[in-house]
Amino acid sequence: MEADGNAGFVPDPWREKREAAARRSLPKGFRPEAWRVRREFGRIPDRLPPPPFKDAEPVGEAAVRVMRALDLPREDADAALVERIWPDAAGPDVAAHARPGALRDGVLTVRVRGSAWLSELRREGPAEILPRLRRSFGEIGAACPVRSLRIVPDFG
Predict the structure, then answer these.
(1) Which residue range is the domain that position 92 belongs to?
(2) Which of 133, 36, 26 is closest to 87 using CA atoms?
């Protein structure tokens, strides 16, 4: 009897070639060790990551396409997108006191409740909100239609 626990083990001559072929089929930049950690930590049952979506479309493009199919003018479609991403782009404090209004010729009207918030946003709002709006539009894969902000009191 052998002291080695591999009694009866027959090496697979094709194992290395199968593993090399599997590595070549993985997405570019994929690190198997990182996937294994995520799989074990998150209890993901699959041994390999899901394949990348070939026909995925950015949400921003899909929303504009749907709004065009509904015969809405481009500015209305863009205004609807601004309204959807406003809470993230403006931040929770600003979004609680201000809301997006009309979007005409790249100028977004922002309606603000309260004189303190109005003066604060007129002073510092455009420098803070515009870059965040552009970043939010970039995250959903759409070009930002907003070039400037017009901050007005909200009487409604």
Answers:
(1) 74-153
(2) 133
The residues, any chain, with a CB within 8 Å of residue 40's CB and separated by 6 or more, are none
Residue 50 in tokens: 């899901």
Tell me whether residue 65 is in a domain: no
> Tell me: the pLDDT tens digits for 31-74?
666 666 666 666 666 666 666 666 777 777 777 777 777 776 66
Q: Write the CATH number for 142.
A: 3.30.300
Q: What are phi and psi of 153, to 5 degrees?
A: -70, 150
Kindly state the greatest CA–CA separation across the chain. 92
Residue 135's identity, in one-letter code, is: R
Examine the domain organization and report whether 78 and 139 are in the same domain: yes
Please report the DSSP string for 63-98 in residue order. HHHHHHHTT--HHHHHHHHHHHHHHHHH-HHHHHHE
Residues 137-152 have pLDDT tens digits of 888 777 788 888 999 9
From residue 5, give the alpha-carbon distance in Å to each of 1, 2, 8, 9, 118. Answer: 10, 7, 9, 9, 77
CA 98 – CA 110 distance, rounded (Å): 7
Q: What is the pTM of this model?
A: 0.52
